[in-house]
Amino acid sequence: MLSSSDNSYIHKKVISIGTVCELTGLSERQIRYYEERELIFPKRSNKGNRKYSFSDVEALMDIANKMEDGLQTSDLRKEITSKRLGEQKSESKEQMIRGQLNAYFKRRQ
To answer: Ranges for the HTH merR-type domain (predicted)?
Structure first.
């Protein structure tokens, strides 16, 4: 699984809202609504246009399916926030372990 700090093409914000509409079947209004409800976080170009990543497209499809199943945006926001906190904790643990290993091996040299 890729971390949120991964710079692979999956996370690069390069896709326009029109293309996202074509890929997901969602309207621009639906996509903007999900942004307003803080379910997705597109970047803005210098001209102010929204730019999405492939992971955003996947998230939008997941959001749309869950909304269709009757979930509310507030429930989805809690789920997304919880997932982000879990990823941050995991990254912090990894950094701490790396630091401990580096310190251990530097002492042994």
So the answer is: 14-82
Q: What are the tens digits of pLDDT across the range 49-108? A: 999 999 999 999 999 999 999 989 888 988 888 877 777 677 777 788 888 888 878 777
Integer-rounded Cα radius of gyration of the chain: 18
Q: How many CB atoms lie within 10 A of CB 107?
A: 7
Spatial distance between the Cα atoms of 35 and 39, rounded to a whole number of angstroms: 6
Beta bridge partners of 62: none
Tell me the domains of the chain and their CATH numbers: 9-108 (1.10.1660.10)
Indicate yes or no: pTM above 0.85.
Answer: no
